[in-house]
Amino acid sequence: MSDAADTIAETRGNRVSARPRRASRREGHGAAPYLQAAPMALVFLVFFLLPLAATIVVSFWQYTQYSIEPAFTAQNYGDVFRGCLADLPDLCTTFVTYLSTLKFGVIVWACTLTLGFTIAYFLAFHVRTLKVQVIFFLLCTIPFWTSIVIRMISWIPLLGRNGLINQTLISMGVIDTPLEGLLYSDFAVVLALTHLYTLFMVVPIFNSLMRIDRSLIEAARDAGASDLQTLVSVIIPLARPGMLIGSIFVTTVVLGDFLTIGIMGGQQIASVGKVIQTQMQFLQFPLAAANAVILLLAVLAGVWALLKLVDIRKEL
Amino acid sequence: MTDAKAVELAAVTKRYDAALAVDAVSLKIRAGSYCCLLGPSGCGKTSTLRMIAGHESVTDGDVLIGGRAVTEDPPARRGTAMMFQNYALFPHLSVAENVAFSLRMKGVSRTARLTRAAELLELVSMSDYAERKPNQLSGGQQQRVALARALMTEPSVLLLDEPLSALDPFLRVRMRSELRRIQRELGITFIHVTHSQEEAMALADLVVVMNEGRIAQAGPPREVYNAPRTPFVARFIGGHNILDDGGRTITLRADALALAPADAAGEANRRATVREIEYRGPDVRVGLETDRGESLSAVLAERAFFERPLEPGAAVAVGWRPDAVHELTPDG
């Protein structure tokens, strides 16, 4: 690669990025841009940064059965992992809970990604008119017209012991006794979470797919690529930003979930969110806060790892 | 490189629902020739090219390449390669991997395909940019890469969809001569879609002027320019004056008109008033309105014009030699 050409490309890149900056300095002289950003900044500050800071602070406080004392201690973090190292290779409750939560995260991520990509692909490449695309999107959002609780309760008549599926299977003679694992099981949790969050995969992936120049697909075909090869070497790489955004969204939400896992698991399945909720019910706020901080760090580590896979700033 | 192959269209038709895009077009393109499909937008030239490429299904008729009917074949089995209008380079792959894409699809090893890609990048003078991503290249550079990628499949026929339209005028002229050079070096058949008559005349062995889904005229550029068949071709190719001459439609090349002072002796074909004067460097274009209300355009050599300069409003006698008259057949 020639150095001269490099320099040209670099200066060109700089010029492109420098221009808007200079323009904004000239036009946006004064307080206007700050005022425009202020409402969102305020919302973030009051409803996100302050509570987060409070959580972190409280996680280092001491507590008794009836009081919380603002005195520094790292004891709460120690309590979360109490006995975990000593018990190895056996897993302590905390590790089991985290692993279980992580397991749901991975399974639901895989399900929503597969489903989401397939649906987005269908919408982007097989539905030709914008009107029909909009109609299908509205169809996808119908489940969101009702509350999350109703949506989950609705699974009961379908999956229950005497639910629609069991009755149908029995009347068809496929099974003699009702399947027990349909409701209040891992399966039910994965099903409900997938149902809840697939749309959050569909939208960003659809957006990525729509931005793929259709002539790229023709160019691949022209170069002798089969449909599968085109999918693997052209479409999927170009859909990566959308897949990444959807993945971050879904895994983050699933790792913090306690409601769906609680209801669909029949309150029998452990999750980190559930643990935090229980600790709060027992007014062990510092302990709950410590757990929340650990969960936050785990999620951030996951997001960081995902961002390592795709340079999102470059691809957006 | 593989041998050049002839391309033949036999009553090829393309219908989109109710609209007829290409209407029973028949055409023979000799092996190793440079053919330009020329016409205004919506004339069916791009649909025709895409049907030859296999990116558009043929409603009726047959496409033959090298004497073999390929109408039902997928693009990759036709021995053609297409260069897309916006180049269609894969944004996530380096220049070298873009060029090597077809070999990667065939399962050729990385080193082997990159070696071959380097050869083709050499041909289009892009060796220094092999590691770049397409968005780090200028339009002209992207086009060279697209050309190299198209040539990677060793096509017998290269199809180019408005390859120069996205370039600035200066670069366009340079890439034009480069396309012609590469076509001569490889000796394969080029089919090039354009709406620029200048481009078509500069490049083509065979110019195919299309209008409303049909071929208005096909022939060597000189023949098309000197003897346009219909008023449409004369108008589209430019530099022609179309006149009604006693019930027949005739055309006169702008450079075949002679202007004399209105009071000059001798016979004139028309009397006219100068409406505008356009200085163009090598020549001067004089816009005229005849006393019958026709507008004419005369192109005079610069020197000849300034020996007897004219001003707008001047009255002139317009004359032409009888052998400059070319009769047109009506459009349709």
UniProtKB/TrEMBL annotation, chain B:
Residues 7-237 form the ABC transporter domain. It comes from the Bacteria. It holds the Pfam family TOBE_2. One of its GO terms (molecular function) is ATP binding. SMART domains: AAA. InterPro entries: AAA+_ATPase, ABC_SmlMolc_Importer, ABC_transporter-like_ATP-bd, ABC_transporter-like_CS, Mo/tungstate-bd_C_term_dom, P-loop_NTPase, Transp-assoc_OB_typ2. Keywords: ATP-binding, Nucleotide-binding, Transport. One of its GO terms (biological process) is quaternary ammonium group transport. The keyword Nucleotide-binding applies. One of its GO terms (cellular component) is ATP-binding cassette (ABC) transporter complex. PROSITE patterns: ABC_TRANSPORTER_1, ABC_TRANSPORTER_2. SUPFAM superfamilies: MOP-like, P-loop containing nucleoside triphosphate hydrolases. This is ABC transporter ATP-binding protein. It comes from Rhodosalinus sediminis. The lineage of its organism: Bacteria, Pseudomonadati, Pseudomonadota, Alphaproteobacteria, Rhodobacterales.
